[in-house]
Amino acid sequence: MQIPLEKILTISAQAYVGPTKNVRDEYEVKGVHWKGVIGSQSKTDQELTGFGEVPENTEVVVNYHYQTIITNGSLFYRPVIMFQMSGTALIPKKK
Question: What is the pTM of this model?
Answer without folding.
Answer: 0.76
